[in-house]
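Researcher: Going back to the complex we discussed earlier. I've cleaned up the inputs and rechecked each line, so this should be the final set. Can you rerun the prediction on the complete assembly and write out the structure?
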Amino acid sequence: GQQLNQSPQSMFIQEGEDVSMNCTSSSIFNTWLWYKQDPGEGPVLLIALYKAGELTSNGRLTAQFGITRKDSFLNISASIPSDVGIYFCAGVDDKIIFGKGTRLHILP
Amino acid sequence: GAGVSQTPSNKVTEKGKYVELRCDPISGHTALYWYRQSLGQGPEFLIYFQGTGAADDSGLPNDRFFAVRPEGSVSTLKIQRTERGDSAMYLCASSLAGPTGELFFGEGSRLTVL
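Model: Rerun complete. Updated structure for the full complex:
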């Protein structure tokens, strides 16, 4: 079946650093979605990408839909403590498939 | 409220018992999804409703799992003869139109089977 590979699995960074994570697939997707999940809560949509090559920003977050339609990346600039959490990519075809997540930790 | 509502938030049951988990989607959202999330994993697709009908139930792991959405709004996920391996967070999401629509998730129902 379709699988999404997210990397890195975990990140430990200092507050203020920029963050980059990506998601790759063996299959083509028509839409890429990026979500953030805090402990004990459901995932919350951050950014949606609908077109190959599209670059979209939401505040300090920027995401791109890869030209091949098999990958996407998410960047976070100038990280702050509330950025801590798990970031999931999701590919949309006839169903919506999630990656395993990138866990972001911010060192004190 | 305006968001997706799931009840119960926590359910502890014994192996072999029957469990129902309820999802109340955002008003006007025609698509409703159930996902299962185990610790350290991403949400795993179970079933997707468009209106009252199950458009895709290919993610249901076996015939102990069943879901309904009789009036095209509230949905119930039913698990028969629960097993310890069924312990997980069960997430419900809705979208205005799907599956290309953006999903809005509830806070989940955490099921623990002892």
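Model: Worth noting: Chain A is about 0% helix and 55% strand.
Researcher: Good, that matches what I expected from the previous run.
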